[in-house]
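> call design_seq(struct)
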């Protein structure tokens, strides 16, 4: 009987933990005739290069058919959202520092994306939650 309880508790623990290992969501919708996609989860990597491209990698890649369902075209990458620093350097600085803070603290973020930049969804706002 004791081994049955151990088995049940182990199974229950595995189910609970498996649900939190990659508890991310990615949805696309249209609001007021404006399409957007939204990622909620943790960031896997935060990246910037000399060409002034910032990439914010999701925990898991998302299905690139989802942005198309909201009307986006040209999306070929589902592993990250992106921003070109040259488009708005001040916003880029704020966004990058917010994302980096969330990444370092292993916080959950919600990132909304509108548009396409280099085949990635173009990020345009971020929330950080506990």
């Amino acid at each position: 009987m004791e081994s049955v309880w151990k088995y049940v508790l182990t199974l229950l623990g595995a189910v609970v933990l498996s649900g939190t290992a990659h508890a991310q969501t990615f949805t696309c919708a249209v609001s007021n005739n404006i399409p957007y996609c939204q990622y909620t989860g943790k960031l896997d990597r935060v990246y910037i290069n000399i060409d002034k491209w910032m990439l914010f990698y999701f925990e898991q890649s998302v299905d690139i058919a989802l942005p198309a369902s909201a009307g986006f075209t040209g999306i070929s990458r589902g592993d990250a959202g992106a921003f070109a620093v040259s488009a708005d350097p001040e916003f880029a600085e704020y966004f990058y520092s917010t994302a980096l803070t969330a990444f370092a603290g292993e916080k959950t973020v919600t990132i909304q994306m509108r548009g396409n930049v280099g085949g990635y969804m173009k990020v345009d706002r971020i929330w950080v939650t506990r």
